[in-house]
Design brief:
- By secondary structure, the protein is an alpha+beta fold.
- Among the domains are: 10-79, no CATH class; 174-289 and 456-499, no CATH class.
- The protein is 48% helix and 13% strand.
- The protein contains 18 helices and eight strands.
- The strands form two sheets. It has a six-stranded antiparallel β-sheet. The protein has a two-stranded parallel sheet with strand order 1-6.
Length: 709
């Protein structure tokens, strides 16, 4: 390793010259042995260090020209690049298998005949629910716009419920953290000490004392808002002052103490919402740290997860129908391209024999290349639609198979009933359930906040048995524990303690704040109900419009097919120009594409209606599980169930405290009789089902020879 000597300042000029001379001699002195060379180097170091320590360096500002290095200039640019370089975290992560094993994507430049994999809509749902830990959503805005890339913190995962359940921070505490407030806390301490000093009374007789202390106790918070504790302590004192009865003494006590709030923070209803009162935290803890609030937060997290799953299934179903449409459009484009190719070939033959004009042949060639471009774009759209579906359901981008949907879209007319859909929407929409949980939480917190707008009045009491002796343990009553068992020494106290901030401004402000939050939450709930009614109305309109448009386009397809057949027959016998035949073929292709687009739009509208009415998960057979309980909870629930089995219902009995959750769905509304009309059963009409979707063949160069491409 090279040794650098840095000498700065003008006053060091001679020294630096001397050192350079020494180093030069050390390098050029070949006859010197290795040991002598080392001695010379050490001598130079010994000269440099004392000079630097004695303050020979000038206090003038040092510039780059004043720096002298023994082995050349320093690579400053190297250090600049190192200090500004972007660093990456050192984590032991492994790339997921779907990415490591995926093949190159299919494209127009890379066409392979992959194995066709028939895929139903239920298969797509099953793959998404069984493989994905992160709920994907449709990417809006192009590459890099996916939520998992643009905002990973807001993406829903299967871990969200467990994270909330194990939360410990204020405001997002889990159930276990809230229950931990009622855990018994054991504290103990042991100290020793010695004090040697001289006093004015006896300057020749030093004072010496030895001390020891032991304290232990268990405290537990109660559901009523109070606390109870037991304690046991001993103090030891040994001294040499005067003529004490015992040169060493033990004094201690064992007892219990209790505290119960009577006004502010009193009662089970307050404690289960706000948790035990924490004087040390004050306004930081608030009234939202109780077990009930933690349970409601868990239900809100489950509602968020259910909304994410529902929206994810909606995106998957829409992507599935998009892939179905891409296949149908590709199939239609293939047929159109083949017809255009056949027409062009016939036109070229007639041109060669002189029975057709050059302009008509060029028009046929124009139509041929137009359909060829449409065919290539349709094939690329098929690749894109399949890749989008694969991303949503968690499959590799290319696993050597090509997905082909086999579930046919619904072609039966659906006439939804307004009253039934509205009742389902108000009862089953997860957004309303989530908002109602929020309102319930604010109501409970408001009641707890109003409880604090009162003085802090606590009932306190304690009882202890004391002990004293020259020894800690012995057979007679002269020891510490012996005097305790006699029961002659005891201490008790009881009374009340009151504390009230004059004006109660913080408590009143907190209650007012929760009143405003509750009013806001109720206003949001009303707006959500109106929005759901509008969503259902719009979805019903889309269902009706898509059905009518699909019906009209189906009739259009029938007419276009008949038109092509008649015009082709007239063109074959020479009574019609080629232009009308080409236009008829283009119109038929547009009619078929429009028909399939409307069929897919009709099925997407049904999906939107199921989502708006809250029936999407139920319609697709998807049910969410809340998760397992703690083992103790199952035993407790079984004991309670056995007790209820042998009990009798009392209609006059009320739950104390009142229930905050019910099993049946809330949200059923009583409609105005004038707004309710009888349901009308509409006849169902069926469109003929088209043939099965073929596998996407590769687009071949089918242009006739002699044509410039």
């Amino acid at each position: 390793m090279a040794v650098r000597h840095l000498l700065t300042g003008r006053s060091m000029t001679r020294t630096s010259d001397f050192l350079r001379s020494v180093l030069r001699l050390c390098r050029e002195a070949r006859p010197l042995s290795t040991g002598k060379w080392r001695q010379a180097a050490v001598a130079s170091l010994c000269l440099t260090v004392p000079l630097a320590l004695t303050g020979c360096v000038s206090t003038a500002k040092v510039g780059l020209d004043d720096l002298q290095y023994a082995d050349g200039e320093a690579p400053i640019e190297h250090f600049k690049s190192q200090s500004t370089a972007i660093e990456h975290p050192a984590i032991d992560n492994v790339t997921t298998e779907e990415v490591r094993t995926t093949l190159a994507p299919r494209s127009l430049e890379r066409r392979v005949d992959d194995e066709v994999r028939e895929f139903t809509l239920d298969d797509a749902f099953l793959a998404a629910l069984s493989k994905n830990q992160v709920i994907e959503s449709s990417a809006l805005g192009g590459v890099g716009a996916s939520r998992v890339l643009a905002g990973p913190e807001g993406v829903s995962t299967v871990y969200d419920s467990a994270i909330q359940e194990t939360g410990v921070l204020f405001g997002r505490r889990g159930l276990e953290a809230a229950l931990s407030d009622f855990d018994a806390r054991w504290s103990t301490a042991m100290r020793w000490g010695r004090d040697d000093r001289v006093t004015h009374q006896s300057p020749l007789n030093p004072f010496s004392s030895e001390t020891a202390g032991f304290q232990t106790g268990i405290d537990k918070a109660l559901a009523s808002g109070g606390s109870v504790g037991v304690f046991h302590n001993w103090d030891y004192l040994g001294n040499t002052v005067g003529s004490p009865l015992y040169p060493s003494t033990y004094s201690g006590s064992i007892g219990a103490q209790v505290r119960q709030p009577l006004l502010a923070g009193a009662g089970t209803e307050f404690t289960r919402v706000a948790g035990p009162i924490r004087p040390g935290f004050g306004a930081i803890a608030g009234v939202s740290q109780g077990v009930v609030i933690a349970r409601i937060n868990q239900d809100i997290t489950l509602a968020d997860f259910e909304i994410a799953v529902r929206n994810g299934l909606r995106d998957i179903e829409n992507a599935y129908w998009d892939l179905y449409l891409a296949y149908r459009l590709y199939d239609t484009t293939v047929s159109t391209h083949q017809s255009a190719f056949q027409t062009w070939r016939e036109a070229r033959t007639k041109l060669e024999v002189g029975t057709l004009k050059q302009a008509d042949e060029l028009q046929a060639r124009d139509r041929f290349y137009e359909t060829r471009a449409q065919l290539e774009l349709a094939l690329n759209q098929l690749y894109t639609a399949e890749a989008g579906l694969r991303r949503l359901i968690g499959m590799p981008m290319n696993d050597g198979t090509v997905l082909r949907p086999t579930t046919e879209p619904a072609r039966t007319e659906l006439k939804p009933d307004w009253e039934a859909c509205l009742q389902d929407g108000l009862a089953k929409r997860t957004e309303l359930r989530r908002q109602k949980w929020q309102i319930k939480s604010l109501q409970l917190q408001l009641d707890a906040a109003r409880s604090l707008v009162r003085p802090q009045l606590d009932a306190v009491g304690s009882y202890a048995v004391n002990g004293f002796g020259d020894r800690l343990i012995s057979e007679d009553r002269s020891s510490g524990y012996g005097s305790m068992t006699g029961g002659d020494l005891s201490t008790w106290s009881m009374g009340v303690e009151m504390s009230i901030p004059l004006g109660l401004r913080q408590a009143r402000s907190q209650a007012r704040n929760y009143e405003l939050q509750l009013s806001r939450a109720n206003a949001i709930l009303a707006a959500q109900e109106r929005s759901i009614a509008h969503d259902i109305s719009i979805a019903m309109q889309e269902v009706s419009a898509a059905w009518r448009a699909a019906e009209s386009n189906y009739n259009r397809v029938q007419a276009a097919e008949e038109r092509v057949r008649l015009l082709k027959a007239e063109q074959d016998i020479g009574t019609l120009t080629l232009d009308l035949v080409l236009r008829a073929q283009a119109s038929l292709a547009e009619a078929e594409a429009a028909y399939f687009r409307q069929v897919v739009a009709y099925n997407k509208a049904i999906t939107s209606l199921n989502l708006a009415s809250g029936n999407l998960l139920e319609t697709n057979g998807v049910w969410l599980s809340e998760g397992g309980w703690a083992p103790e909870a199952y035993s407790d629930a079984r004991l309670r169930a056995l007790a209820r089995t042998h009990g009798l219902d009392d209609p006059n009995q009320e739950a104390a405290p009142k229930e905050f959750a019910v099993r049946q769905r809330a949200g059923q509304v009583e409609r105005d009789p004038q707004a309710v009309k009888p349901r009308v059963s509409a006849p169902q009409e069926l469109f003929p089902t088209p043939p099965a979707i073929p596998a996407p063949p590769a687009v071949k160069d089918d242009a006739p020879s002699g044509v410039v491409k």
